[in-house]
Amino acid sequence: MPVQDILTHPDERLRRIATTVKNFDAKLAAGFSELESTMRAGPGGVGIAAPQIGENKRMIVVDCRQSLRPCKNHSLLYMANPVIISSHGKRLGREGCLSVPDWVGMVPRAAEACIRFDDVHGQPQQISATGFEARVILHEIDHLDGILFIDRVISGKDLIRRMTD
Question: In the chain, what are the domain boundaries?
């Protein structure tokens, strides 16, 4: 699938609330594949949301298997219309984003989350995620609501410019 351009902050399209996915067809499956290809083309991408490529749909792709942060995970996830059912615990952790490429920050997130979503065929699914995978899923769900990780950084001292070669 073709790799799409990733929108970067301060593009206002990143601040829109994404619309519910209603049609579970070949076009949706192709959209998920396109999201996955774009995520994998980015540096260290473990998650991406449709709004990051200008698609205003409630779709995210998450795959933590190649992460430098080992974690128990559910492999590759194509999630439409994800909803947080519950979350527990709080952990401060470092986050970056393909849409905010020059910065990383310390962000508080739930340590565990239960998520309900529709799979690529429109079948309801529910998973429990912990640790880094929970952080990634929650980060991507934020994108669907127009929230960037920089909005969740507790203080300016917790936002750090990435070092470049």
Answer: 12-161
CB atoms inside a 10 Å sphere around CB 151: 11
The string of pLDDT tens digits covering residues 78-112 is: 999 999 999 999 999 999 999 999 899 999 999 99
From the candidates 36, 95, 133, 140, which is the catalytic residue? 140
Cα dihedral 144, 66, 110, 160, rounded to 10, equals -80
Does the annotation count 140 as an active-site position?
yes
pTM of the full predicted structure? 0.93
Spell out the residues 6+ positions from residue 137 whose beta carbon is closer than 8 angstroms to its own.
Answer: 47, 60, 62, 77, 79, 82, 113, 115, 129
Residues 6+ apart with CB under 8 A from 125: 79, 116, 117, 118, 119
- CATH: 2.60.40.10, 3.40.50.360, 3.90.45.10, 3.40.190.10. Which one for 12-161? 3.90.45.10
Q: pLDDT higher for 158 or 17? A: 17
Q: What is the pLDDT of residues 113-145, one digit of tens each?
A: 999 999 999 999 999 999 999 999 999 999 999
